[in-house]
Amino acid sequence: MEIQWRKSTKSSGPDGNNCLELAEHDGEILMRESDNPGVVIHTTRAKLRAFLDGVKEGEFDNLA
C-alpha cells in the first residue's frame, strides 16, 4: 500500500518543499519534512493532538 502524504495548502517556497507532510498508515501518524523525505517520524493521533494543543496554547512560544 502506497502512503498518501498530505501537506498544507499554505506551504511556502517556489517548489512547495518547505513544509511538514503528514500521512496515516497502519494506525500511526507519520510526519516528514518535504525537503528531507527519508526521515520519517512515527507517532499516534493522541500524541500529535496533545502537541498541537500545546502549540495552540502557546506552550512553545519561548523557544525561539
Helix content: 10-25%
End-to-end distance, in Å?
A: 39 Å
Report the sheet with the most strands, covering strand number, pairing sense and barrel closure.
4 strands, antiparallel
The share of residues in extended strands comes to 25-35%
- Spatial sequence of strands, sheet with the most strands: 1-2-3-4
> What is Rg?
13 Å
Low-confidence segments, ≥5 residues, pLDDT <50?
A: none
- Assign the structural class, choosing from mainly alpha, mainly beta, alpha/beta, alpha+beta, or little secondary structure: alpha+beta
Number of DSSP E strands: 4
Overview features:
64 residues; 4 strands; globular; DUF397 domain-containing protein; DUF397; four-stranded antiparallel sheet; single chain; alpha+beta; 1 helix
Can you walk through the features of this model?
The chain has 64 residues and is of the alpha+beta class. It has one domain (1-7, 16-64). The chain contains 1 helix and 4 strands. The chain has one helix at 45-56, and strands at 6-7, 20-25, 28-33, 36-43. The chain has a 4-stranded antiparallel beta sheet with strand order 1-2-3-4. Strand 2 and strand 3 (28-33) form a beta hairpin. The protein is globular and about 35 Å long. The N and C termini lie far apart (39 Å).
Layout of strands and helices, then pairs:
Elements: E1 6-7, E2 20-25, E3 28-33, E4 36-43, H1 45-56
Antiparallel strand pairs: 1-2, 2-3, 3-4
